[in-house]
Structure formats: structure tokens, C-alpha cells
User: Fold this.
Amino acid sequence: MKRQPKLLGSAPVLLVKDVVKAADYYRDQLGFTYERFWGEPPGFCMVQRDGFVVMLAQVHPGTPLKPHWKVVGNMWNAYFWCDDVEALHDEFVKRGARIDYGLGVKDYGVKEFGIQDLDDHDIAFGQRL
Assistant:
């Protein structure tokens, strides 16, 4: 029997006003790393942490950005599952991340919190209970 192809990962793509500032925020406040920028001037970067990638793409100056929560209330632009949400929350607080909503147990059986990046994207981090 032929093996079915397997997906190996995914990467949200977030539109940002300034890709260098955005990448530095993900590095400095959220513990991601990056190796390079693409374009001259820079227009694209892939930040990563623990094997997960977020792609950051810079929009043309003056282009309006609309995070998901401005279209659908309380909706994230990206969601990450983690194995110790309390420790991750503590790390982000110490790094000075913009905490959007604090740790809490949700009615869907997940303990989670959220941050906002420099472009107001909501990124959530949750641990299944």
C-alpha cells in the first residue's frame, strides 16, 4: 500500500510595517531567532523557535494592517501549543513582551495567554490540560 504524504510543519505569515523591528521584537521579547533578511532594503524574515517558524513580510509604507481580532473578536493571528505555558508566560514577562491577556484556563480545556506584537497581531500560547 502506498504511503500517504505527510505534512511536516506550517508557518504563519504575518504582514508587518517594519520587518527589522518586528524580527527584533520576536527575538528579544519572545525568544525566537533569525539568520537573515531577504531583499534590499529588507522585506522578509523567518523567525524560529523550537522548530516552529513565523514568516514576517513587510508591507509597502502606508499600507493598512488589520489584525484578525479587529475583524473577528478575540481571534488570534497565530496559536502555538507548548508543554509549560506558565514558564513560557514568565519568560515573556521577564523579556518585556506585550501581554495581551494573562494566563487563564479556557472552557475548551486549555491554559493559555496571549501577546501582541508590534503590529498588533495577537499570538496565543496554550497548554492542553
